[in-house]
Amino acid sequence: DTSVTGVQTCALPISIVLVILTLKLQPVQFKLPLSLMASGAIGNLIDRVRYASVTDYLDFHFGSYIFPTFNLADMCLVIGTILLSYFLLFTPEAEAMVKRRQTYLS
Q1: CA-to-CA distance for 97 and 106, rounded, in angstroms?
Q2: I want to staple 67 with a disulfide (CB 3.0 to 4.6 A). Which of 1, 15, 41, 60 is the partner?
Q3: Is pLDDT above 60 for 103?
Q4: pLDDT, average across residues 89-101
Q5: Is residue 81 over pLDDT 90?
């Protein structure tokens, strides 16, 4: 299937870049969100390679509403993205870096 191959082709380099960025980051608070995002991407990639699909197993029902089914890797990706967004938008360290025009890797 070409869509599976496309996902694998994109997910692997992105995961590698996230891991390398995580190791080089100066502000420590960025390591947790990027680690969560990398682990979620790698977890879904492992499922894609082994089973040719991602197995979703967390299913919640609220009355007549059925929440979309997801897995632990999806949770890591979402929580990592939310934390990274928060740290980039609302922490003094990120604001100070923007004022100094400093990157997160320097």
Answers
A1: 10
A2: 60
A3: no
A4: 74
A5: yes
